[in-house]
Here is the input.
Amino acid sequence: MSENRSTILQISLELFARRGYEAVGIQEIVDSAGITKPTLYHYFGSKSGLLEILLKESFTPFLTRLADAARYSGDVTNTLQAVASYSLQFAGQNPSLFRFYLTTQVAPLDSEPYQAGKFIHLEQQRILQELFLKAAQDHGNMKGRHIAYAASFLGLVNTYALLAVNGEITSVDNLVNQVVHQFMHGIFS
Amino acid sequence: MSENRSTILQISLELFARRGYEAVGIQEIVDSAGITKPTLYHYFGSKSGLLEILLKESFTPFLTRLADAARYSGDVTNTLQAVASYSLQFAGQNPSLFRFYLTTQVAPLDSEPYQAGKFIHLEQQRILQELFLKAAQDHGNMKGRHIAYAASFLGLVNTYALLAVNGEITSVDNLVNQVVHQFMHGIFS
DNA sequence: AAGACAGTATACCGTTCGGTATACTTGGCT
DNA sequence: AGCCAAGTATACCGAACGGTATACTGTCTT
Here is the structure.
């Protein structure tokens, strides 16, 4: 049922990821999907509605599982490894989605992509800040830095994920360990 | 002489940074600048020409000085501090430019902003890879990782610079030390 | 059998897009 | 004075933009 709806979502994601949200027209989407405009407007109401639904449906399950992975177990390294592992795995399995998500995160604050993707990195930051806040109770030297830690850990994960997706890094097997280790102990050691 | 030219550059940067390259029309630029279309086309030839010249003129001096700061002196920490210091300083003094530069870096590969800004992060990566390559001669455990190191150091600097520009981080005084220390020794210690 | 409703297509709307042909003004040079 | 070239404005171009009014088709319910 409603095969056209999922076709539109899939095609538009591919186009948005490759050429950018603003550069892609409605006409181009419906042509690529083999349908017509009213069909798209029937399901999504507007171009920005399509964008919102696309991000919402793609990332709600991701965020739920990320919150599970980030539940602090008393071992910071283990928890961070779970977070990095799931994030990198998700990025590897959905390269177009991950690329597009990155563009929304850094897009201009007034742009539609940023506004539509805001909930994703707000929730990501909330999850990680909570993790580092709890961890700081066990590790005094981490106190008062949970915001910076959350941001820089996310930045590091995203950086390595982008390298992997771009094929600029070959061995992905121990990428998780590499990311977490670098975050915890730096490049020395 | 040619005050209009620099007005166009300044206004268009502000608009691109706030709303995104594709979302901003030529008409809007010339209206904001108080001039007309032919004037803009006289100086820049096209919208993409404006973008190219804008990035070229803004970042050529930045890259030159960055290369100076990144000259390896035998002390990795010192050199990285010089790089981070100059980068954060430049970002702080040109917040709009820095924001827009970040969007070009993560923009879709086929988009005009990415293509126009490609030379910047290619040169940044080249500079830092060279630095880490030379440093690896003194520090054996860094060998074979210069690509990942360059990427993740840049990612870390950009992450903190964005936090600072967004006002999510207050104390900027020891930000440089914080970035370099985290990169070298991790969050522990 | 009849109606309701979701889904889809044809054809069109006004607006804005990037870009330009043409002409006027201005300054400096000969 | 006469000319040239840079710089700027008026007015316009065809194409593409996001979006929609209307009508047709099927399927499912009653």
User: Anything to note?
Assistant: Chain A is about 75% helix and 0% strand.
